[in-house]
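Page 42, continued from yesterday. The earlier attempt failed because a stray header line got pasted into the input along with the sequence. Redoing it now with the clean sequence only.
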Amino acid sequence: MGPVFVASASASASPSGSPSASVQSPLLSRALSIKHVSVHYYKDLHQIPELLFDLHETSAYIQKELTLLGIPFEANIAKTGIVAYIGKDSSVKQEAIVLRADMDALPVTEETNLPFKSKNEGKGHMCGHDAHMSGLLTAARLLLEDAKAGRFPKNYYAKLMFQPAEEGGAGARVMRDQHDILHDAVAAFGVHVGPGFGKGQPMPTGNAFFRHGPMLAAAGEFDITVTGHGTHGAAPHSGVDPIVCGAAIVQSLQQIVSRRTDPLDAAVVTVGTFHSGVAHNVIPSTATLSGTFRALKHETFERLEANIESVARHAAAAHDCKMDIHFHHDTAYPPTVLDEGATAAVRGAAEKLLAGYSTVGEMTAPIMGAEDFSFIAESVPSTFVFVGTANATLENAAFINHHPRFVVDPEALPVAAALHVSAFYALSSAHQEGTLGEGSNPSSNGGKERKDEL
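This time it went through. C-alpha cells are written below.
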C-alpha cells in the first residue's frame, strides 16, 4: 500500500517551526502570537482526562474560559457537552457554521514523563482531544475579535460544539438527535491531531491533510456467547466443548472479508477478545468472544453484520452449541463521508493560510479508524482535517494516537486554531455561493425517538 498522506505540489514543504518557515497569513500570525494561550489550555486540559459523558471537570474548565471571554453558551447538553455562540444576532435570520472539538479521554494510564501528565489514574488524553479543545478555545478568541471588529460574514455565525463521548459513546449523535444542535447549521468542520498512521507515513507538525468522500470507516462491535456442556478435560466425549466451537467461529469470521467481500471494497472483521475456562483440566460450559467490524460503505457495513451473525450461528450449530450474539447498535458509527464542495473550500483556504509555513496535503486513501463526526457529516455538508504532530526532536514522538506514550507537539496548536477560523469563513462563502452539498445522509436523524437517552 502506498502512502496515505501525500503533500500538495502547490504547497510549501517547510515543516512548521523550522528556520526556513515563514508566516504569510495575518490570521496565522495572530494565532501564533497567542500560542502561549493555546499551550496553557492544552496543559491544563491534559491533566484532567475524563471518560465518555462524565466530563464534569473538563466541562467546568471550558465553561469558565468561555465566561472569561464573554462568549454566551449552553451547557449540560448530552450531560456535559457545551455549545457556544459567536456573532449570533437574534434580531436577524442567521445560519450556523459548526466548529467541533471532542472532549473525552481514554481509559489508558499515561506513560509519558510530561510535567503536566494526567492527574487521574487510569485515564489519559492519549488521542489528542485535549489539543482539539485547546484549538477550538483559541479559535474562539480569534473569532470573537473578528466579530467585535465587524468582520463576520453577513447572516452567518459560529457555533462551537464541545462534544463528549467520541471514544465509543456516540456523543455527536446524542447532541445531534436529542438536542437538535444542527437545526440551523449549513456546514461543519472538525480537526484531529496526530503523528500519522503506521511506519513510513508521518504527518509532520503543522501540516494539514484533507480528503473528500469516505475518510474514515463505519464501525460496530459485537459480543458472542457460546454455550456447550462442561465436563472433565479427560472425557471430552461426555460434553460439548465451547472453546473448540469458539475457535471455529473465529476462523470462520475471517472468511467474511477474504471470501464474501469484494477485494476492492474495504472491510475489517476483528475478534479482539476470547475468554473461557478457569482450569487446565476442565472443559467449561461457555466461551465469550467480542470484536469490531468496519467498512467504508453503509451497505457493506450492514452486510458484514448479517454475515457475522450467520457465520457464527452456523458454526455453533455444526458443533452442537448454542450461540447468542449482541450488536452494539447504540454506539455504532457510520462512515465519515466528507462533502466535496466543503472540502475544496476549506482546503483552498488552508493553502493560503499555511503558505510558506507548512504543507497542505492529500489523504490518498481512507483509513479504517472511526469518528463520530460522521453523524454530523451525515446531516450537513462537512469536512475534516488531520493536523500533523510528528516532530522527531520530541520524546515519545514515534508513538501514535491511543498509545500510553502519545504526545502532541505544541507547535501544532496554533495551526489547529487558525484552521477553525479559516474554515468558518470558507464554509460561509461556499454556502453563500451554493457550492456545498447536502450531507452524506441528510435524512438521518435516527435518535430523535430516544429522548430519554441522556
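Notes: The radius of gyration is 24 Å.
Reminder to self: strip header lines before submitting.
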